[in-house]
Write a structure and sequence with these properties.
Strand order of the largest sheet: 3-2-1-4-6-5
CATH superfamily: 5'-nuclease
Number of helices: 8
Order of helices and strands: EHHEHHHEHEHEEH
Structural class: alpha/beta
Shape: globular
Number of domains: 1
Radius of gyration: 14 Å
CATH architecture: 3-Layer(aba) Sandwich
Length: 139
């Protein structure tokens, strides 16, 4: 299964575990393939560098850079596709995820973002929560 994992899911997986971590573990095990773009990697690094995450990251004896490297090490980098018709996105930054998914020919976008989730799909690419994605992978 070809996946684009939204930044919120990747950060949650690395910092808090749970179902998002199970998804990252499945990717590590080769049960799915993650794709990302330079724009998403930049966003991921910016989010990890936020002060509100500093104590949690320090508890693991990690740095934002080392966590970013651990995630980007399991994802395949693609050049984002140009998107002509996006319509009205509630959050314009979601275009980064959609462009990556189109370029990766993703089977799904995995996100916990409410603004992205309300779309349900982008073209023929479903937008799933981590739990929904794991269910599909198990089927």
């Amino acid at each position: 299964m070809r996946l684009v994992v939204d930044t919120n899911v990747a950060v949650s997986a690395l910092l808090w575990g749970g179902v998002p971590r199970q998804l990252l573990d499945a990717i590590h095990q080769g049960r799915a393939t993650a794709f990302t773009s330079g724009d998403l990697i930049r966003e991921f690094r910016e989010v990890l560098a936020r002060e509100k995450f500093a104590a949690t990251i320090a508890q693991f004896g990690k740095t934002p850079q080392s966590l970013a490297e651990s995630y980007t090490g399991i994802a395949i980098l693609v050049d984002p596709a140009p998107l002509l018709e996006l319509g009205a996105l509630r959050d314009p930054k979601d275009a980064l995820v959609l462009a990556c998914a189109v370029a990766a020919r993703a089977d799904a976008i995995v996100s916990g973002d409410i603004d992205l989730g309300v779309l349900k799909s982008f073209g023929d690419i479903p937008i799933l929560t981590p739990a929904q994605c794991l269910e599909r992978m198990a089927a």
